[in-house]
Amino acid sequence: MSDQQLQQLIKMVNQIAANQHGEKAQAAQRVAMHLQKFWARSMKARIIAYLDDDGSDLSPLAREAVACLKHERQAG
Question: What superkingdom heads the lineage (predicted)?
Fold first, then answer.
């Protein structure tokens, strides 16, 4: 996956997170569920790898959601 594709993933997850309202932990869980349902396996793997490598361009809520996604993938 190219750097441009990664930047698009970052933009998308930040937009999804920005559209969540309510309590932060529940919002992060909703974003993680959205990623789990609608993103391709390669997209999820790439955004998790980005979080592990740097993650600095992710909003705080997006960062928490990707961490939730990572945890769910490791547990399942």
Answer: Bacteria
Q: Which DSSP helix (H) or strand (E) runs through 76?
A: none
List phi, psi (to 5°) of 57. -90, 0
For residue 19, report the phi and psi dihedrals to the nearest 5 degrees: -90, 5
Q: Dihedral sign, CA of 61, 65, 71, 75?
A: positive
Query: Can you spell out the DSSP letters for 13-69?
Result: HHHHHHT--S-HHHHHHHHHHHHHHHS-HHHHHHHHHHHHHT-TTS-HHHHHHHHHH
Count CB-CB contacts under 10 A for residue 54.
9
Neighbours of 46 (CB within 10 A): 17
pTM for the model stands at: 0.93
